[in-house]
User: What shape does this take?
Amino acid sequence: MNTSALENYILKTADDLLVLGHRHSEWTAFGPVIEEDIAFCSMAQDKVGQAQALYNVLHTTFGYDHPDTLAFLREEGKYTCAQLVELPNGGYDTSLMRHFLFDHAERVRLASLVSCPFEPLANLAKKFKGEVEYHVLHANTWIDQLGNGTEVSKARMQTALDELAPYALGLFEAIEGEQELVEQGVVVSEQDLQAQWQAAIDPILEKAGLAAPDWSSITPVVGGRKGYHSEYLAPLVKEMSEVLVIDTEVEW
Amino acid sequence: MYGGGFIPDDIDKKVPVDQEDPVRLEEFQARIDAGEKIEPHDWMPHEYRRQLIRLIEQHAHSEIIGALPEGTWITRAPGFRRKLSLLAKVQDEVGHAQLLYNAAETLGKPREAMINDLLSGKSKYSNVFNYPAKTWADTAVIAWLIDAAAIVNQTTNAKGSYGPYCRALDRICQEESFHLFYGYESVVTLATGTEQQRAMVQEALTRWWKPIMHFHGPPDTSSVHGNQLERWKVKMASNDAMRQTFLNMYVPKIWELGLTVPDPDLKKNEETGQWEFGDPDWDEFWEVIKGNGPCNHERLQVRRKAEEDGRWVREALMARSGKQVLPLS
Amino acid sequence: MATIKSLDPRVARAELPTEPTEVVLNPEEQWETYEVFHQKKSGARHIHQGTVHAPSSELAYTFAKEQYGRRDQTYSIWVVKTSQVFTVENDNSLYKTVPEKQYRNAGFYKVRDKIEKFKRQMNEH
Ligand SMILES: [Fe+2]
Ligand SMILES: [Fe+2]
Ligand SMILES: [Fe+2]
Assistant: This one.
């Protein structure tokens, strides 16, 4: 097994979850209705918790730093999240659409990892399944209702979709060594995951009255997996670690 | 009859108790004296309804506004453990608002109307949330001591007479115990940590002490409500009694950590068993109530912004039945 | 336009005007309410927990799951529109038990005395 590629695979998966979980958490107490505020915050917690568990695998199995150090005290260029998750929340339209696009991707990724021969990862994939099922249910419900809501809500969701589509494709940017991992049966190729993802979301978008983009004609926003990020990641990381850097040696 | 229909004509209108049907009034009082709970569709004096709405609504507002001081640090919580705990804690406070608005709604005031009264400044919320959370240590002090003070209040009110409010409070109190332990652990971690951390938590405690002393309201002599609310089990304990309970439980714990309470006069009178303390500046309390606290304006502007930004979402899914439906119980 | 200098970075970024904004919710803007029933584990009953505001059954369910199932053990949740719940006004008056109805309870049926009497009679013979 190409362990360094596997480590990178785990790291990018964790980074995606941490950063999107963080973005989700920014909505806490500011949501459009109290009930939704609670639901969205739960999903933020799920994502942050999933990230923590993945960092912990890197820590215990591969000798990486403690999850807190790894997650919060890296330089911006060392993060390998996709740029999709870094973007500011914008309005609830953008946040929901990103959540929809991301969680469907996570769902197919986790399903593919359930049979991963690297057991700690397979175990986590099974463990997270229930949470991700809910996230997808939540996302599908909202996309359906707002797409089929008013002209205003439909237009807003369509705009959000069109804006986020190139970024969403960036989720499937291959990491170095992917080919080898795929050949060894450790992971499923990003290309295959993307196909599964499209097959899952296109009918939901259609039912919501939204026009699914012609995915093949879109240029994905890539670079995140190699440490190239939008202007938004560095301030996010700085903010997340503001208290921790006061003293990195102690418990807070 | 289908659920959720009752809306009184004018909730804000005052109907003096002596204008109520004396027989029903007596029956009502007898039920309360016997420890029975009053349910939404039971007969109740107008004034009972009005005061309960006011009480529960303000409690609900306090929860939703109460999410903001600690929310100040939500994006900066240090490390996974704190990040997750703070998120869950603030989420619970939002959840408490949800439960309490529902309880208040059973009395006939729609949630929209309550939110509007919050946004316009007509309806109040707990003063304590008009103070800023300047450092991370503030979140620890808030989660421990403000929640502790709130728990004293909430466990007391949970023994009140209105069923839906008691049920909401039972649930809330269960969650509050997590807040209390999370807050206590956070304070203890800082207080037993480095000099810098100790200084942070001491400084936060010093700033929060005054609002904490204000939490249970002014001394009872200057309280606006009389005994009627106590007989109806709407008000379950005097402000002073709740403050004493709080001091009794928590001052020793603060001192145990070697932290200083910024009140040289604070001591327990062993003869009376009562805590004595210096004037916690009631003038400031009244000033903040009037809207002149450090964060009153920001808190309301934040809520207004949240409601305004969420409007397109809510409007997109409105059914416009023309008939307001309120929760059953 | 002057904006609020907040300690909360999220609020600071939102650049809220220092001038009070007027925001008024319309009637029904918080949608209608659904009653939530929660089943703790398989074999248990669904028990009423409270309500959620929602625009549809689907969202009511989605909300109820987190508001009433995020902490307690949960097996299943039901939601139903409050407006669909039927009851009778002041129905508690219908349930005042009449003492004569004791024949519906097991305790109403006493056999021990008869058995003892029967045994005594048998012994006498
Ligand atoms: Fe609370
Ligand atoms: Fe609280
Ligand atoms: Fe609390």
In short: Residues B 63, 93, 96, 172, 176 surround fe (ii) ion (ligand 1) (CB under 6 Å). Chain A has a mean pLDDT of 97. DSSP finds nine helices and no strands in chain A. The interface with chain C takes residues 26, 30, 33-36, 38-39, 42, 134, 137-138, 141-142, 144-145, 239 of chain A (CB under 8 Å).
